[in-house]
Amino acid sequence: MAFTDVLMQNVGVDDESFTIVDTTNSEHQVQFRVGGADAIITLPTGTKTLATTDNTLTNPLQDADLTIQANSADANDLQLIFHKSRNATDGAHTAVQNDDKLGSIQFKGSDGDSFEIGAEIFARVNGDVGDGDMPGELVFATTADSSASATERLTIGADGSVDILGTFKLASIAVTATAAELNIMDGDTTATSTTLADADRVVVNDDGTMKQVALTDFETYFETTLDTLSNVTTVGALNAGSITSGFGTIDNGSSTITTTGAITGGQVNGDNIRLDGSTISSTNTNGNITLDPNGTGSIINTLAAGACIRLGHVTKFNVDTSLNCASTANTATYTYTAADADHEYIVKARVVERSANGSKFFERTFSFINSSGGNLASIGSELKSTAGTNAADDGQPNVTISATTTAIVVTLTGEQDTSDTHACQFTGEIEIITKDPTSSITIA
């Protein structure tokens, strides 16, 4: 139908209608009734009512798509606009209020006898309205199974926030973490103190997949791996625990190792000195060991009675013996095995005998030789000095040194005083000097 064939007729207030007629075919006409009871369009095939006076759509588009199309050489678009005013007079304005709906798009389906809502998208005022100020939010709602009304599921607020009210899924997998749990991943979240347990978890990237790993797995990993990490060179203070076998070499450079406890081990090397069990030795060939007290300090022998200290050619045994002076069998015997063949020995006994009756000092020296035949014989003896006095006793104290075929025997005899019961005490040392420092001297 060309515009040259269009006739506009019956246009007037009284007729309350507007008709466009094709003059070539009187059946081709479109009529708009604007003042009657209904707003209608009259087509050649009949009258279609668009809306009744209560603004209800009575005849929707049937079996057809609704297309709004724009053809323009610009960036402009066509708009589907919903207006909302709280004024009941058409065209008049009264400000809307917070939570007023501004427009909705509903999606309905037939339940067999009526159309029911399945989903809805609507806009709603989201805040205080002012002149030129219309805060709004967009709401997406869906109807749950066995329900006839839609429930809000997702809201995009006026501030741009997105509030998901249902279960959030990624690739059909529900994200069950709470907002507080997700916020922990934020570096600005305040740290909290907690007591860790074996069952606690740490999140790790396992070859591109994030996994929760128990603390016990970390313990196993570090226990089996740290000893192979060559780049681990420094640590902080070790305030607890222990360094056990299998740890390997500890090299702390020139730093000091300090302890108030004991250092226990098989062997301790310091500079040229080695502590190995009960032996102190030099690691240098023909190296010397020097005992050098500080200032006026002394090297003090605190060995128990009968114990010895061996310094090269010299072996010293402590003497600390208490005898009963009233007894006739008031002797103490020290026997030293010296069975090495062809070795010479010099034995010195330096002791003091003390009792209630006085004291006496003895220093007696004997020389012995172990012949090739294995007999230990005396080759000379000397009572170097005596000092001190004792009161008149039944028997005076004495020190004697003798030899058997395989041993050196030192006998201490206390004073005898049968008229009184008291103790006599021998203290001092017995020194055995050998020609060969490797000679074996042991107390029997």
Shape estimate: rod-shaped
Tell me the CATH topology of the domain at 308-443.
Immunoglobulin-like
Strand content: 35-45%
CATH class of the domain at 308-443: Mainly Beta
Structural class: mainly beta
CATH architectural grouping of the domain at 308-443: Sandwich
Number of strands: 27
The topology string of helices and strands comes to EEEEEEEEEEEEHEEHEEEEEEEEEEEEE
The largest beta-sheet arranges its strands as 18-19-26-21-22-23
The biggest sheet amounts to: 6 strands, antiparallel
Helix percentage: under 10%
Mean pLDDT: 76
**What is the helix tally?**
2
Radius of gyration: 58 Å
Textual characterization of the structure:
By secondary structure, the protein is mainly beta. Among the domains are: about 1-60, no CATH class; about 95-175, no CATH class; about 310-444, Immunoglobulin-like (Sandwich). The chain has two helices and 27 strands. The chain has helices at about 180-185, 215-225, and strands spanning about 5-10, 15-20, 30-35, 40-45, 45-50, 100-110, 115-125, 135-145, 150-155, 160-165, 170, 175, 200-205, 210-215, 265-270, 275, 280, 310, 315-325, 330-335, 345-355, 360-370, 375-385, 400-405, 405-415, 425-435, 440-444. The strands form seven sheets. A six-stranded antiparallel sheet has the order 18-19-26-21-22-23, with no helix packed on it. A five-stranded antiparallel sheet has the order 1-2-3-4-5, with no helix packed on it. Strand 22 (about 360-370) and strand 23 form a beta hairpin. The chain is rod-shaped. Residues about 10-15 have low confidence and may be disordered.
